[in-house]
């Protein structure tokens, strides 16, 4: 049973709570306040915040990407992303999702993802998600598959160079470099 949860757009007053969740779930400084500021009043970057019983229970960042934004997300895989996705722009990207440990496995991730897809599909039917592989499992896969996305490709150590450049810690690897793998999910079949 999903507890009563409201979904709203990120406000500046949400930054502190969101960063506590992000640091705990994704690693210290993976998301920064500076990054969050880019989601305020930006029509192509949206962050949804879930509140359950008055407490922030999770969040999801989404983005409508044209070529340059997509290449920024591609990190070390720019050539492959260009081949796969440049002919289907814009692409709606389900970016980062994190649910507070206190509220995990209660359906909040599904609520956030459905709301995000509802907004993204107003701009494009081409949806992409770059997912973290945690201890051999993609925690988000069940939700994505349930929403109609399919696995496309595994990328080894996707965040290695990015973690070194931005100096963020990984909850699995610790201090940089992050050697975690990623799985790409899409709503459209790509070869």
Q: Which key features would you list for this structure?
A:
globular, 31% helix, Aminopeptidase, seven-stranded mixed β-sheet, 26% strand, 7 helices, alpha+beta, single chain, 191 residues
Topology of this structure?
Blueprint: E1 5-9, H1 15-26, H2 33-37, E2 45-52, E3 55-65, H3 67-74, H4 78-85, E4 91-99, H5 108-120, E5 127-132, H6 141-146, E6 150-155, H7 160-166, E7 182-186
Parallel strand pairs: 4-5
Antiparallel strand pairs: 1-2, 2-3, 3-4, 5-7, 6-7
Helix pairs in contact: 3-4
Task: Explain what you see.
The protein has helices at residues 15-26, 33-37, 67-74, 78-85, 108-120, 141-146, 160-166, and strands spanning 5-9, 45-52, 55-65, 91-99, 127-132, 150-155, 182-186. The N and C termini lie far apart (38 Å). It has 191 residues and is of the alpha+beta class. It has a 7-stranded mixed β-sheet with strand order 1-2-3-4-5-7-6, sandwiched between helices. The protein has one domain (5-131, 141-150): Gcn5-related N-acetyltransferase (GNAT) (Aminopeptidase, 3-Layer(aba) Sandwich), CATH 3.40.630. It is built from 7 helices and 7 strands, in the order E-H-H-E-E-H-H-E-H-E-H-E-H-E. The protein is globular and about 45 Å long.
């Amino acid at each position: 049973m999903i507890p009563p949860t409201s979904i709203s757009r990120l406000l500046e007053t949400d930054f502190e709570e969101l960063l506590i969740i992000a640091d705990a779930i994704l690693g210290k400084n993976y998301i920064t306040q500076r990054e969050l500021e880019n989601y305020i009043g930006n029509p192509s970057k949206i962050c949804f915040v879930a509140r359950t019983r008055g407490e922030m229970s999770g969040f999801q960042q989404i983005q409508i990407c044209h070529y340059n934004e997509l290449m920024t997300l591609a990190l070390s895989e720019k050539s492959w992303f260009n081949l796969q996705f440049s002919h289907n722009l814009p692409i709606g990207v389900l970016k980062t999702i994190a649910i507070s440990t206190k509220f995990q496995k209660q359906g909040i991730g599904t609520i956030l993802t459905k709301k995000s897809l509802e907004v993204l599909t107003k701009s494009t039917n081409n949806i992409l998600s770059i997912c973290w592989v945690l201890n051999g499992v993609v925690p988000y896969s069940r939700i994505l598959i349930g929403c109609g996305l399919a696995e496309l490709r595994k990328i080894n150590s996707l965040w290695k160079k990015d973690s070194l450049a931005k100096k963020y810690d990984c909850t699995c690897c610790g201090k940089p470099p992050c050697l975690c793998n990623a799985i790409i999910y899409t709503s459209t079949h790509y070869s």
